[in-house]
Amino acid sequence: MTVSNREAARRWDCSYHTAKKRRDAGEVPPDPDQTGPHFLDLPDVDHQDPEAIADAAAALRSEILKRDIRQAEVTIRIGDGLPAGVAWRADLHTGSLRTDLHAILRHNRIIRDTPGLYTGFAGDSWDNYGSSPNKRTGQHEAILPEEMQIAFVEESCLKYLRGKTLFFEDGCHEAWTFAATGTKPVKWLVRQLSGKGIKCAYLGHGGRINLLVGKQKYIIDTRHKGRGKSILHIFQSIFRSFKDDSDYEDLPHVTCHAHTHDSGHFKMFFRARWRVGLKPGSYKPTDDYGQKGGWAQTRPSMPVTIFYPDHDNIIVIDDIEAGARFLTAERERMSRLRNGVSA
Ligand SMILES: [Fe+2]
Ligand SMILES: [Fe+2]
User: Fold this and answer.
1) Which of 11, 66, 112, 248 is most exposed, with minimal Cβ within 10 Å?
2) Complete edge-to-edge strand list for the sheet that includes strand 73-78
3) Please, which residues bridge with residue 221 across strands?
4) Which of 18-22, 28-32, 218-222 has the lowest mean pLDDT?
5) Helices (H), 208-265
6) What residues are neighbours of ligand 1 (ion), with CB under 5 Å?
7) Which of 93, 92, 131, 127 is nearest to 108 (CA)?
8) Could you tell me the distance, in angstroms and rounded to a whole number, from the CA of residue 173 to the centre of ligand 2?
9) C-alpha span between 234 and 213 (Å, rounded)
10) Taking all residues of the chain, what is their mean pLDDT, rounded to a whole number?
């Protein structure tokens, strides 16, 4: 292709007249296509196909979620035709200065030795050391290293709670460990237990349990933190769970919210059926952080709900000792009835 004198001047970086003189003398201006640089294997940076990116992300997401053991809803069948109990436990704060580890073990033994009694852990199973600049990561008088705190919970399950543990949830301290390390310690623990023959659900920050006891289905919502609690009304977040606008059939029969260590429970007839609210309390009565806020000492209520298999009935008992006694008595009574012996 013929190159104009003006284009020749541009390529030589000289004046128009100089370019003309050089061309008249027989010189040929350089062809820019020949001068390079020529990149022979650059990636295609100009054509990132959004459809292809979306397809790749969807495929990866589906593979990752397939392997995620966290579930928002789990269905569990328990019991043997007799009443079954669940001891609601949370805020163990294993490893903190004032946490009574012997009380935790005593309760573990009661659950192990009581037929029909099960348990679950609604978060803050330990009191981690995790550090981070945001200063929200525990360090409230923990006296055991974090790995020993986790080992205590794991070994407790292995030693006492085989076939007795229904679920685990994340609490604040577990979330702080995740924030500091990128590892979800409860998810890790549940996988460890599964590998050692203890199957239980991992509900993340909370979830729904459809509990099948005999002919009955009981709907239970459990979370470490419930939204909307008031300092003057510790059950407010639980009431909210009963007031959802959805069909009454979908509302929980039992709601357990942990986190704040004040404990208690109630049973009320609301929206066409009896409903039970639970706050388990904590095995850590106080710590330096609580004292700074002027909070009163708390106690581990760890209430027990007893579910009947033959008719729709939930009884809630203050604590594990009394719950185990009542459950045993009720099972014996129903057993005698089943065998045709007068109660
Ligand atoms: Fe807690
Ligand atoms: Fe908490």
Assistant:
1) 66
2) 73-78, 206-213, 216-223, 254-257, 273-279, 264-270
3) 208, 255
4) 28-32
5) 236-242
6) 91, 124
7) 92
8) 7
9) 29
10) 90
Coil, strand or helix at 243: coil
C-alpha 156 to ligand 1 mean position (Å): 19
Q: 62 C-alpha to center of ligand 1: Å?
A: 34
Compute, in angstroms, the gap from residue 330 CA to the centroid of ligand 2: 34
Between the CA of 241 and the centroid of ligand 1 the distance, in Å, is 21
Domain boundaries, the chain: 74-338
210 alpha carbon to ligand 1 midpoint, in Å? 25
In angstroms, the CA 89 to CA 155 distance is 17
**Is the pTM higher than 0.90?**
no
Q: 285 with 299: CB under 8 angstroms?
A: yes
What distances in angstroms separate CA 201 from CA 1, 70, 168, 181, one per listed residue? 75, 8, 6, 23
Sequence letter at residue 134: N
Confidence at residue 31, expressed as pLDDT on a 0 to 100 scale = 85
Task: Give me ligand 2 centre to Cα 174, in Å.
Answer: 9
Task: Give residue 251 CA to ligand 2 midpoint distance, Å.
Answer: 24
Q: What is the pLDDT of residues 162-173, one digit of tens each?
A: 999 999 999 998
Please write the tens of the pLDDT for every residue from 123-135. Answer: 999 987 555 555 5
Question: Ligand 2 center to residue 86 CA distance, Å?
Answer: 21
Q: How far is the CA of 50 from the centre of ligand 1 (A)?
A: 45
Whole-Å CA distances, 198 to 159, 276, 317: 11, 28, 27
Q: What's the gap in Å between 40 CA and the centre of ligand 1?
A: 61
Query: Which tokens go with 307?
Result: 């579910």
Kindly state the tokens that stand for 77. Answer: 């069948």
C-alpha distances (whole Å) from 152 to each of 127, 147, 189, 331 are: 12, 9, 11, 31
The CA 327 to ligand 1 mean position distance, Å, reads 28
CA distances from 322 to 110, 175, 326 (A): 10, 33, 6
Q: What's the CA gap between 290 and 99, in Å, rounded?
A: 13
- Cross-strand bridge partners of residue 99: none
Class of domain 74-338 (CATH, top level): alpha beta
